[in-house]
Amino acid sequence: MHIVRKLNVLLISTLLGIGTVGAAFAQTAPAAGAMASSPSPTKAQRKQARKEARAKKNAELKKLEDAGYQPGRASDPNYPQDIQDAEKKAGIGQGTNQ
Hints:
This protein is mainly alpha-helical and about 100 residues long. It is about 75% helix and about 0% strand.
């Protein structure tokens, strides 16, 4: 009886494996045509978007630092309050809404 179970598991796993490969091949051909018509961003566009987001975050951090926030202090006992004060002073983010 134990060998029958092993054979059943082997058979089922093989069939599932074949079913997945068939589905993968079936989806590649139509997806290529659909991808060409869909407006997905190119690698250069994604890179540019990441650069813009990074520049925005860096500018925000610079404003916070100019308003008195010091992010490099380890174990800062005033952490939530000092960043909230800096956000309020710089006019950025949530302020003290939390």
